[in-house]
Amino acid sequence: MCPPAPDGLAGAWSDLDWDETLEELDRIRHNSIPTTPIDEI
Question: What is the separation of C-alpha 1 from the centre of its chain, rounded to a whole number of angstroms?
Answer without folding.
Answer: 24
